[in-house]
Amino acid sequence: xxxxxxxxxxxxxxxxxxxxxxxxxxxxxxxxxxxxxxxxxxxxxxxxxxxxxxxxxxxxxxxxxxxxxxxxxxxxxxxxxxxxxxxxxxxxxxxxxxxxxxxxxxxxxxxxxxxxxxxxxxxxxxxxxxx
Length: 131
Fold this sequence. Notes:
Helix content is 40%, strand content 18%. It is α/β, with parallel strands linked by helices. The chain has a five-stranded parallel beta sheet, with helices on both faces.
């Protein structure tokens, strides 16, 4: 399986990479993009995307909206953000986001969500791409 981390803050990406053994959750490929604009053309190639909200060029919610509504991807999304505004959470839920995790990140919460997604993807036999 393939996972994409979308965040404009390299320390956040490095923290996830150092704290989580993604292979343990079935991810053979873990790539990164610095904003939604860079991620949008490739998002369909990934099973799971972990994205920040506030980024230059294209924010995380716009990335998710365009991926879901315009590209019709089957990709599963997790948001990791410092913004605890319920409006963001509500919008994320509308687009089928699997979890909204607040920064500073609780690594156990991310691991639990990755385990759930691994089980869900394994059960569905899904591969990345569009619906």
